[in-house]
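call fold(seq) -> tokens
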Amino acid sequence: MIDARGAVWLALAIVLGVAAPASAQDTLRFDFGPPVPAPDSAGEARCDAVALRRLRGGRVLWVRPLPERARRAIGGVCRCTTPDGRPCATEVRDYLRGRAPSPPGVIGLEHHAGHVFLADTSGLLVLDAASGAVVLDEPTPEGRAAWFDRGRWTLGACRGTARSGAFLGRCDDGVVFFDAGHALLVATRPARVVARATLSVDARRPGSVSIEGPLGAHTLRVEGAIFLR
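ret:
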């Protein structure tokens, strides 16, 4: 439930750039709740995503409130000031103003095969693209089995790129979701999880890792680079 203060913030978010340009065919955008002041921080506040909306030509087709796990995962600092008192740049503000493709916490957002797939650092949410109804809600298991900064993955003839130990990729009529070693293969006709696995590092070399294991009828392979810090 979004209260009156939240509704004001959502309206402000749309003015700042959450709504799609009128020329766009279909756009998926996040709504954010009101700023919540950070404890022990002067002037800094956090905003969490509260809903996902689908727009067509600026017209709202549906709004889907996000599960609590996703609300905690998607968002970040949206209000802060520099030492000289000026507003500082944040990833959430950049997203709301149309300067970033996605807010912090989002791994991938795909409109594919009649469904909307939202992957974030807490799990995978699958919605019916026409109505916004929840089809699947798959929280990611706790614990990190594998990590890398940038990488590439293959599953049979499917392939793609990954970052920050995670990816959401199309594979034929379905999608592959991977986060820190936890993998899901999701079909779309109908939408269902057809395979799941927890994969660990198969080989480790200076600055890189290889992750490999069965997922459905094929082997998922991820080659990742680890940047020196």
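Residues 142-229 form one domain.
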